[in-house]
Amino acid sequence: MTTAAHAILFAGGDAEPHIAPIQVRDPRAGEVLVRMTAAGVCHSDLHVLNGDWPFDHRIALGHEGAGIVAAVGENVDLAVGDQVVLSWYAPCGRCEACVDGKSWLCAESGAIGNGLPDGTTPLTADDGEEVRPYLGVGTFSEYALVPRAAVVKVPSEVPAPVAALIGCSIATGIGAVLNTADVRAGQTAVVVGAGGVGQAIILGLKLAGASKIIAVDLSEDRLEIARQLGATDTVLGSDPDAVDRVRGIAGGSGVDFAFDAIGVPQVTEGIVAYVKSGGAVVLVGMPSRDAEVSIKPWRLIVSGQRILGCNYGSSRPQVDFAKIARLYLAGQLPLDLMVGERIPQARAVEAVHALTQPVGKRKIVDFTIN
């Protein structure tokens, strides 16, 4: 048996993504069929359309989302009707990284090949050819069929748009602060890039008790959002004295942590200038696969500075997603402030292309509206 659905399909190259009917097979042992309720529009989808992360197969776009359990296979400890957040990096649970408790570094995840743990896909297009779900989830589809490791149950009280964002931007940004950087109360930080992930980093810094939270962005609109989220200071990225201004706000010697929430090489190369001796740069924003940057190792060595890579917020979804949901419900994380315009599935492609304009909050594909 299969479930009929509509997805946003992309064949790669110069092809234009489009809505098309698909068939989703029924869940097998250890699998979950999810009826999607909300999906975030993330820059990683734009990377795919731009060819920065090329694939040699047709994919169903979307990787940040939440929904309701519609059916389960054998040996699944979830019930139909449970609200779940989808994780786009379901770990294998067997490799060295997983055994070491670092599932975000899993080397055997089926998500790497845009499929299930066994390398197959549960999706078929109407032409009879297979479609692979982007990062194993394909959240712009009306239904997603995923392994149990790719879903995390959250309370029904969490609004679907918030739950969707927990699955990528929020977990990545807050995890970058609490897990990767381990920011302590009273420390200082600059966040370069106040888009979705940057906004979550700001919330994480506020939660951690950072004394100075400085946002840098080219958009006045996003700097205003940053202030609403808890940034103590803002600096326009186009200001030629931006580095000196940030260092001055932090007391003159620089910040303890500089978070690169963009991933553009020219930003990455210059971000060390914000950091004081003994401080750290945290690379969070994703670049194209072949991006290169140059560094000056002498300064890093004599200043005792560090560069930290951050994949998925160094998060363990089964633990961290639920924790973030609890903090939201307790009023300690105002995640609603990150939710932007809700749009129908038909506008998903338009919203992805619009990410080239750095303004506003995270758009949400709302599957309850037409």
UniProtKB/TrEMBL annotation:
Keywords: Metal-binding, Oxidoreductase, Zinc. It comes from the Bacteria. GO terms for molecular function: oxidoreductase activity; zinc ion binding. Residues 12-364 form the Enoyl reductase (ER) domain. It holds the Pfam family ADH_N. Its cofactor is Zn(2+). PROSITE patterns: ADH_ZINC (PS00059). SMART domains: PKS_ER. InterPro entries: ADH-like_C, ADH-like_N, ADH_Zn_CS, ER, GroES-like_sf, NAD(P)-bd_dom_sf. Coiled coil: none annotated. Belongs to the zinc-containing alcohol dehydrogenase family. This is S-(Hydroxymethyl)glutathione dehydrogenase/alcohol dehydrogenase.
